[in-house]
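If your schedule permits, I should be very grateful for your opinion on a structural question. I would ask you to consider whether the tokens describe a fold that such a sequence might reasonably adopt. Thank you for your consideration; the sequence and its tokens are set out here.
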Amino acid sequence: MTVRRLDHVSVVGEASVEGPWVDRVNGMKGVQADIVMMKTPDGHGQLELTRFRNPPLVALEPAIAPPNALGLRRVMFAVDSVDDTVAALGAHGAELVGEVAQYEDTYRLCYMRGPGGIIVALAQEL
């Protein structure tokens, strides 16, 4: 796999998957999904993001869950500039959950909600 840099994220690989093995893994029939594997900033871990094209997405209740809802609702990324990242993600439909806030003289932080409802937390070390 070739590692490429994309807006502060190292993408290790991308693929579209479907077929009997994908159906078995997900416990559903007719699964079609796109996956992107990203390398963590420290270079030691990886994070896989999946977007399902089929079957149709199902509603989650409540649909727009707050940041403290039970379950995996958010993932945090260290970024070079919160403002630049907020602008870039906003251009793709993400919206701030609250406001960009500063924690002492250490971090600028915010939560953004993407079109799928997942919260992405951004942290800029000062």
The mean pLDDT is 81.
